[in-house]
Amino acid sequence: MAIATFGIVGAALSDIVLIGAVSLGLGALLATSQVWFEVLKWLGVAYLCYLGIRVLRQAGSPTVAPSDSAPKADRLIRPVFLRSFLVAVTNPKGYLFFTAFLPQFIDPTAPLPSQYAILTLIFVTIDVMVMGAYAALGASAARTMRAGAQKWIERLCGSSFLLLATGLAFYRRSAE
Known about the structure:
single chain; transmembrane; 7 helices; mainly alpha; LeuE-type
C-alpha cells in the first residue's frame, strides 16, 4: 500500500498539470489543432506500449522480496510515481475531458485562477480518495492471492496497456 501511495501522488499531480494546462488554453489547442493532438496521442500510444511490454515481461517476477523489501521498495517509488504521472499527461483524452467538463463550473465574470484552483482541489481530493480505496482493495486482494493468479493478473494488466494503446492509436476526435 505504501508504494501505491506514490502512484496516487503521481496521478494527483497529473490532475493538477492537466487542469492547469487546460486553464492556460492547452485543452483548447488540442481540441482545435490536429497536429498537436496527434503528437500527444502518439506519445501516449508509445508510452502505453512500453508499459504493456514491460509488465508482460516482468509478469510473475516478485516486485518486492520479503527479506530485503525496504531497499527494493525505495527503488520502486520513483518508477511508480512516474508511470502514474506519465500515463495521464500523455493521454490527450484527459485534456479534452477537462476542456469539456470544467467550463460548466466556471463563471467567466469572476476571477478564473481561484475558480480553477478550487476545482482542482475538489477533483484531486475525490481522485485521491477513489484511488486510495482501489489501492486498499488491491493490497488486500494481493495478500490473499496465490502467485499463479497474480501472474495472470499481471499478464492481463500488460495486455490491457497494449489494448489501451491500440484504442488510443485508433482514436479520432469527433467532427464538430
